Amino acid sequence: MANETPKGRDAEVTSRMMSRVRSKNSKVELTVRRMLHAQGYRFRVHDRKLYGNPDIVFVRQRVAIFIDGDFWHGNAWKIRGLPSLEAQFPHRTDWWVAKLRRTMRRDAQVTAHLEKEGWRVLRFWESAIQANPHAVIDTITKNLESQS
């Protein structure tokens, strides 16, 4: 029992689950890329030359797109109808909240940095893409057209 998490799940199972979480090329990211490509848009993917390594980059229009996972970027508690970020973590609350708040601060810093350099930054929650990918694509294409 020493190798179990407080909820009763074996630590190895949790580790295996977490190792499968993708930081690049997630299903929602691939969905957005396929839909944009189908509409004739061409873009860079994970441009390491650009600060923050955006998921999708339109260099000519200076538009950087980030697709943020709900859990890792601090939105899951809202989706689950919880009263706060802290409520999402009954165990190791301080550690998890600090970790996600660092990610949220980094996201804000990356956005501010890119905007200061003249980029338009678009951020989308994975849940928004799952719920209505066409609305997300419409938002992106309108931003691209206004930057042309």
- Overall CATH class: Alpha Beta
How many helices? The count is 6
- Tally of extended strands? 4
- End-to-end C-alpha gap: 60 Å
Pairing-aware structural class of the strands and helices?
alpha+beta
Architecture per CATH nomenclature, i.e. the level-2 architecture: 3-Layer(aba) Sandwich
Question: What is the helix fraction of residues, given as a range?
Answer: 40-55%
For the biggest sheet, the summary is:
4 strands, mixed
Strand percentage: 5-15%
Low-confidence stretches: 1-5
Outline of the structure:
This protein has 148 residues and is of the alpha+beta class.
3D architecture notes:
The protein is α+β, with helices and mostly antiparallel strands and 148 residues long. The protein has one domain: Endonuclease, Chain A (3-Layer(aba) Sandwich), CATH 3.40.960. The chain is 47% helix and 11% strand. It has helices at 11-19, 27-38, 76-79, 93-116, 126-131, 133-147; strands at residues 44-45, 56-58, 63-68, 120-125. A hairpin with a 4-residue loop joins strand 2 (56-58) and strand 3. Helix 2 (27-38) crosses helix 6 (133-147). The longest helix has 24 residues, at 93-116. The protein is globular and about 50 Å long.
Topology:
Layout: H1 11-19, H2 27-38, E1 44-45, E2 56-58, E3 63-68, H3 76-79, H4 93-116, E4 120-125, H5 126-131, H6 133-147
Parallel strand pairs: 3-4
Antiparallel strand pairs: 1-2, 2-3
Helix pairs in contact: 2-6
Keywords:
4 strands, four-stranded mixed beta sheet, 148 residues, alpha+beta, Endonuclease, Chain A, single chain, 6 helices
